[in-house]
Amino acid sequence: MRDFAVLYAELDATNKTNEKVAALVRYFRSAPAADAAWAIYFLIGRRPRQAVPTASLRAWSAEAAGIPDWLFEECYAAVGDLAETMALLGMRSNGVPEAATASRSLAEWIEDVLLPLRELDEPAKKRAVLAAWASLEPRERFVWNKLITGAFRVGVSQKLVVRALAEVSGVDEATLAHRLMGEWQPGARFFAQLVAPETGDADISRPYPFFLAYALESKLPTDPRGRLLDADPAAFAETLQAALGDVRDWQAEWKWDGIRAQLIRRRGQTFLWSRGEELVTERFPEITAIGDVLPDGVVLDGEIMPFKDGRALPFSRLQTRIGRKALTKKILAEAPVVLFAYDLLEIAGEDVRDKPLRWRRAQLERLVRECNSPALKLSPIVEAESWEALGRWQRRSREHDAEGLMLKRLDSAYGVGRIVGDWWKWKVAPYTADAVLIYAQAGHGRRASLFTDYTFAVWDGDPRDGGRLVPFAKAYSGLTDAEIRRVDAFIRANTLEKFGPVRTVKPQLVFELGFEGIQRSSRHKSGIAVRFPRILRLRDDKRIEDADTLDTIRALLPHEP
Amino acid sequence: MTDLPDLLRLTPAGLYCPAGDFYIDPWQPVPRAVITHAHADHLCWGCASYLVAAEGEPVVRLRLSRAPAPSAIQAVPYSEPVNINGVRVSLHPAGHILGSAQVRVEHRGQVWVVSGDYKVEPDATCTPFELQRCHVFITESTFGLPVYRWRPQREVFAEINAWWQENAAQKRASVLFGYALGKAQRLLAGVDASIGPIFVHGAVAGVNRAYQAARRLPDARYVGEVSDARQFQGALIIAPPSANGTSWMRRFGEFSSAFVSGWMQIRGARRRRAVDRGFVLSDHADWPSLVQVVRETGAERVWVTHGYNSVFARWLSEQGIAAQAIETRFVGERDDLAVEDADEAQA
Which ipTM was obtained for this model? Predict the structure, then answer.
């Protein structure tokens, strides 16, 4: 456990990729295989089901520290990280744990302590957790808390983990990335297979790593807020021409706002994986049924979309469906889904990711035609003779129930992870609204103790004639550090009331918010809910009376069949 | 006791003693000020007269950029009472920085003590904290949360030395950020000077001179005097946090940076600093010390200021100690940014 805690601290302490990889390499070289497997499991973002409710952990931690619950909450608000708060509160002034015992390995901590926790009754859970706290030194205790709260996160991507593993094992990165897909049981055996030159372990459910696109904003010139300079369509078409070359070398598709997924048909079995590497076969019976008409040895990449009467439905329909445990007939009828297929990764049992997109698309079109399944649709290609014409399509994306275009180079292979150059997303500008800051709360992580979590309001009624501000959206990101400090100071100086960690703030600052989607909501006071709200900028030039009204925002609501 | 009027009260200009007609750490220029220490949020310029602890007089003069007449500053040794309009005032070591004082005010049998900022663990750069028993104690609460518990400073200095040594072995410079007044000198006195040469930022060099009269500090050259950048290889450089990320840093070539502060206890604060390391070393009392000092003063009433006022006051009340939060000069509570900005306005 100590070595893993040291690794965590090293990864946490640096922003430099090379140093992170070096720390990972050192760890993988020296760690026992079972520890290495568990480390990988957590580092790439997997976690076991939470064994102890967070509320219990909080209560036990407060009790162990001899402080009331409200004081625990104050500490949490200042620290901004639950695992860290509990680690700090358990620390005695000399920094040594109360009953240091022989150090268990990471795998032992997880297999002998963490995983069995779930089976214990409440008092036994509590005893086990308190015993763990007492026997770990502060740095280990922090990492342990991260593991049991299910909040383990440290600044490494799967890509960096794979790079380090490649350096340690000599196995190439794409193979490693592939072996890390799907379901696997961490342990010495898994690690041995992972780093073995050749395993011949064909797990038939294993998906391929998803190929990801970069935002066009990362390649093209943008304004200081990171938005494309596309106000003049002709000039922007020239920019695209210069950056990407001939439009005929590219395939454009609608960018869907659904769930990216891989549909696998192998040896008579069907598997459906979401991009979060979750097996969702049971959740989408309509799509799983496609498997029955697919030939063996096929893997499709596409988007699960709610779709009815020839039109895509808003993402919110899918959300209501995802949340349900049981799929009733009613739900299936209200939010039926289809798979918009856009790529073919395997056919006749052969991995065809290295073939050009042009070839893969042709095969995909033939396959979809032959299957003739109502739930399997081709994601249509958006045809255009010039960048300017394509730009016209792009601006009308919302009319096509899409959030922009995907640009894919016709001769590109299907890569692993994110690679610059072959796939781009070209999203439409977000919806915007001017709103007034009314509540604030301290942030988390590196924003601990700073007021960075804001609630914004818009006017219900005429601001100059009896209208009132109603909460409309929460947003956390979008400001620079300097702006955050400024708004933080404003909040401290203009707090009207405190409700626990929440401050009511004098309505004075106006912000331009951006958001991706908008829908009706009975759970929100304003009657609407927006998707991915974020701050675009501070509008010092606006007074609160200039903020938007609910009426102007309601006008953005899409059709709801 | 209860029928006596309060000896001190909070006014728009800060803590005021009506009986003696003076202010303690006033927030704006007043005729008569008693000063706990020279940090910007306690030492207001423009007052007609100042009462300060003798140990800290050179520092106070340095920090009052618009120098008052020499006669305007009255410097008294610790514990030596001064009579101000019939009120007995004395200054007692607070252990925060050189010359930092608790202000003890006694009148008609009532004793009030204003802690200013204080630290209980002794260090070489100032006279150690001396507990004062009193009826009413006005305490700071900068780190008034139970997550703030300091380890002994020798452990922290051992970490700092190890970090410096490792950098020196790699021929890297080690840049240590700490407040120019107090923390920088404590670092200078606390590190193992045998590891390599030590250099300081101009703001630190100025304060060092003011310290030299009272405390011997290891040799540390002013960075600006160095023309050959190779001299920085393996050296330790002590600088105020505001220097981080500025072009001033370029001269050091390859370096590792660290920030030294009680705020570094929190990982988020550490990450926000954009430094390689954070060392937890504070010149303020941690939670256990705050609690212990409040108890040992024997105070019947406690006012809490400067920091987690309302939290610490509420906790004390729940422990059966009559406590209330009082306002601080800067609206709302202060955090690391506010402290630093205030501090460096004059650094």
Answer: 0.92
Does residue A98 sit in helix, strand or coil?
Answer: coil
- State both tokens at A404: 């922009």
Judging contacts by C-beta atoms under 8 Å, the chain B residues touching residue A495 are 332
- Residue ranges of chain B whose CB lies within 8 Å of a chain A CB: 145-147, 149-152, 155, 265-269, 271-272, 276-277, 286, 288, 308, 311, 314-315, 318, 331-333, 335-338
Of A74, A80, A444, nearest to B145 by CB-CB distance is A74
Do A71 and B147 count as a contact with CB atoms less than 8 A apart?
A: no
Write down the CATH number for the domain with range A431-554.
Answer: 2.40.50.140
Interface contact A74, partner B, CB < 8 A: yes
- Identical fold, A2-149 and A251-427: no
Please state whether beta strands A311-312 and A534-538 pair in parallel, antiparallel, or not at all (unpaired): unpaired
DSSP β-bridge partners for residue A440: A454, A503
Q: In chain A, where are the structural domains located? A: 2-149, 251-427, 431-554
Is B308 in Cβ contact with A71 (below 8 Å)?
no
Q: The sheet that has A404-409: what strands, in order across it?
A: A214-215, A423-427, A404-409, A250-254
For A422, other C-beta atoms within 10 Å of its C-beta total 19
- Digit-by-digit pLDDT tens for chain A (561 residues) are 889 999 999 998 887 889 999 999 999 999 999 999 999 999 998 888 888 999 999 999 999 999 999 999 999 989 989 999 999 997 554 444 444 455 789 999 999 999 999 999 999 999 999 989 888 888 899 999 999 988 888 888 888 999 999 999 999 887 888 888 888 899 999 999 899 887 655 678 889 999 999 999 988 998 877 788 888 999 999 999 999 999 999 999 999 989 999 999 999 999 999 887 777 888 899 999 999 999 999 999 999 999 988 888 877 778 778 767 678 888 888 889 999 999 999 999 999 999 999 999 999 999 999 999 999 999 999 999 999 999 999 999 988 889 899 999 999 999 988 777 899 999 988 888 999 999 999 887 767 778 889 999 999 988 888 889 999 899 987 888 888 889 998 998 898 888 777 889 999 999 999 988 788 887 788 888 888 899 988 998 899 999 999 988 888 886 654
Q: In terms of CATH, what superfamily is B9-148+284-344?
A: Ribonuclease Z/Hydroxyacylglutathione hydrolase-like (3.60.15.10)
- The tokens describing B237, both together, are 């450089």
The answer to whether the Cβ–Cβ distance between A79 and B268 falls below 8 Å is: yes
Q: Say whether domain B153-279 belongs to CATH 3.40.50.10890.
A: yes
Q: What angle do CA B186, B189, B193 make, to 5 degrees?
A: 135
Phi, psi (rounded to 5 degrees) for A308: -150, 140
